[in-house]
Design brief:
Chain lengths: ~325, ~260
């Protein structure tokens, strides 16, 4: 039986997320390598736009109009569509490893008993199925895993598979929504925190303040450098737990994975759980007053010094070079 | 309120000694074992809820026989009893089996809320809590940063972490909630708690106690690890020890060379 590989897309603010295009690219390349085919799924109150975007990556996209996802959490609705497609011949499902994506994957495992290759950052078709690479044990080991049956699920971490459009755009087919697979919680309100418009994953420059920043006021240095360098502010778990920065800014194992052109860390020790979220950055610069801070192991430039001295000096230098 | 909390024993991330054995499975002897971090947040939230609304907290663990040692740590914080699912046939269990088994054990307990972690620190699959909810046919409220039940109305509200901030979501109870660090740090066990934990009951359940067909015969798991390798490392770069103004110039040169400023 040839493989039929489904990429599940996620929509944010009316358009496709970047991770969805990565999942679509992976589904297509697995399908090509296996001699099978790939398709995509968008479930949204207004799926037409994102489905058209997804069709740039896949030969066939199903656009399910689901009014319910506007006012309910999406996982029960998306899982119902995927379960239906599994019944119609889909063999493998690629889902982004976001909160919603993991909810969808978990729901599907519970409903179908299918195996899940979780948190893949790479996958290749080998023999009769996909083999995925995942970082486990908080960054201390890397595993390669496969399914023992002819079908199963994959959750994909952001940034592992570069998105590449297909040679030709695919077709979009509208579909009626299925009934939710399990009861769905109601969404009463969606609250955006200040500064959340710029996504951490898309930023070219990320300036991170760690516990060394010491206070919410201390973040002024981080904010200033971020805006001077055209970047966004990121955080370690320590600075999030302290309440200085919203959780959405956390980088690492339990936060976001970033691969910016420049990561600048101020007062960040570089714990393994933080490193797994940032060591794919092109350039890493760290300022730390402790010469033994483990972030030195991954930094291209490791500056031993006080962030409250080096930070403002760097800001002044950048300003001076720009002519004031 | 009756609250069931899923608690998984994991290698202590703070010890930094986690590793895989030659069989590519977790080397359980290499590391001390603790309650998974997110499960501790779940437990703390559960304890605060019963302090506010009355009721009790029970923990549910699927683990090898010595899993009881870690369960005592959770009991010391205030859970009144534990359910320990343990069976030779579950060694190395995959996600579908873990989910089915935990759901079957949970189905034997009355509860208003079932709390689990958003993910685990060792594998970080992040699928079990959602899977258990699906198996039980209950609503899932995931990525909780705050939990507000209304026992009179039979509903629960959760602040759910989002990429932008948070969503306020609601479902009828019984419901399943996956918990995060944003719920707040767990309490430390008191000496009294540690003493009390010794005599708290941990009921042991085998697969046969939970029903038929929960685990495949002969460990025919749905997934297998075929290889493992050490993590990728990055070559260390240059260290700058100059005074701030000079250091700033060196950084700026470095950035300018790479067209980052
Ligand atoms: C299961 C699990 C998941 C985790 N997930 C994450 C995650 O997703 N993201 C994450 O970041 N962490 C995560 N952690 C936590 C992680 O282990 C570290 O505790 C955390 O990253 C430390 O943050 P930090 O570097 O800001 O603080 P610290 O480790 O306290 O480091 C602060 C640093 O600042 C330096 N410093 C202090 N003052 C100054 C100054 N004036 N100038 C210059 N340097 C100064 C110090 O020398 C020190 O190196 C996780 C932990 C666990 C167990
Ligand atoms: N063996 C287990 N025993 C009890 N709870 C578990 C077990 N495995 C997973 N869980 C729960 O499910 C959550 C998510 O786990 P995972 O999907 O493995 O990342 C954990 O934080 C626990 O609350």
């Amino acid at each position: 039986m040839p493989a039929l590989i489904l990429a599940v897309a996620e929509v944010a603010d009316g358009s496709l997320t970047r991770l969805s295009t990565e999942a679509a690219t992976l589904a297509r390349s697995l399908a090509e390598a296996s001699g099978g085919s790939a398709l995509g799924l968008v479930v949204d109150a207004a799926p037409a736009g994102p489905a058209a975007e997804l069709a740039a990556y896949l030969p066939r996209v199903l656009a399910v109009t689901s009014g319910a996802v506007a006012g309910q959490v999406p996982a029960p609705h998306v899982a119902a569509e995927v379960a239906r497609l599994l019944g119609e011949g889909v063999t493998h499902v690629v889902i982004g490893a976001t909160t919603d994506g993991r909810d969808i994957a978990g729901t599907l495992v519970g409903l179908t008993g299918l195996g899940l290759l979780a948190n893949a950052d790479e996958a290749a078709w080998e023999g009769d199925g996909p083999v995925t690479r995942s970082v486990v044990l908080g960054g201390r080991a890397v595993t390669r895993s496969r399914l023992t049956a002819g079908s199963g699920l994959i959750t994909l971490r952001p940034g592992g598979v570069p998105a590449v459009e297909a040679a030709a755009a695919g077709t979009v087919e509208p579909r009626e929504a299925a009934a939710p697979a399990v009861p769905a919680a109601t969404v009463l309100d969606r609250v955006a925190e200040a500064g959340s418009e710029v996504s951490l994953e898309d930023a070219r420059v990320v300036v991170v303040g760690g516990r060394g920043v010491g206070s919410p006021e201390g973040f002024a240095v981080v904010d200033e450098l971020a805006s001077l360098l055209g970047g966004v502010v990121g955080a370690t778990r320590a600075s999030v737990d302290a309440g200085w920065v919203p959780y959405a800014r956390q980088i690492g194992q339990t936060g976001r994975v970033v691969k910016p052109a420049l990561y600048l860390g101020l007062g960040v020790s570089g714990a393994m759980q933080h490193r797994v979220g940032m060591q794919g950055s092109e350039v890493i610069i760290a300022v730390n007053r402790d010469q033994d801070a483990p972030i030195a192991e991954v930094a291209d430039l490791f500056v031993i010094g006080d962030l409250f001295e080096v930070g403002p000096a760097l800001a002044a230098e950048v300003r001076a070079r720009r002519g004031g | 309120m009756q609250i069931l909390v899923l608690t998984k024993p994991v290698p202590d991330p703070a010890a930094g000694a986690e590793r895989l054995g030659p069989d590519n499975r977790l080397d359980r002897a290499a590391s001390p074992t603790v309650v998974n971090g997110n499960d501790e947040y779940a437990l703390e939230a559960a304890l605060q809820l019963v302090e506010a609304h009355g009721g009790e907290v029970v923990i549910l663990t699927m683990a090898p026989a010595n899993g009881t040692e870690t369960m005592r740590k959770a009991l010391a914080l205030g859970a009144v009893r534990g359910i320990h699912v343990t069976d030779e046939a579950l060694a190395g269990a995959d996600l579908p089996t873990t989910i089915r088994v935990l759901a079957a054990a949970a189905a034997q307990e009355p509860f208003d809320l079932l709390l689990g972690g958003l993910d685990t620190s060792d594998g970080a699959g992040g699928a079990v809590t959602a899977g258990v909810a699906a198996c039980l046919g209950l609503p899932l409220l995931s990525a909780a940063a705050a939990i507000e039940p209304d026992p009179a109305a039979g509903r629960v509200r959760v602040r759910r972490l989002s990429a932008r901030g948070y969503d306020l979501i609601e479902a009828p109870m019984p419901a399943v909630i996956s918990c995060t660090q944003a719920l707040g740090a767990p309490r430390y066990p008191s000496l009294k708690g540690i003493m009390a934990a010794r005599s708290r009951q941990i009921a042991s359940r085998s697969l046969a106690d939970l029903g038929e067909g929960l685990a495949p015969a002969d460990g025919a798991w749905a997934t297998k690890v075929v290889a493992s390798e050490p993590p990728v490392t990055r070559a260390a770069g240059r260290t700058i020890t100059a005074a701030p103004a000079d250091a700033a110039r060196e950084i700026a040169d470095f950035l300018a060379d790479r067209r980052l400023i």
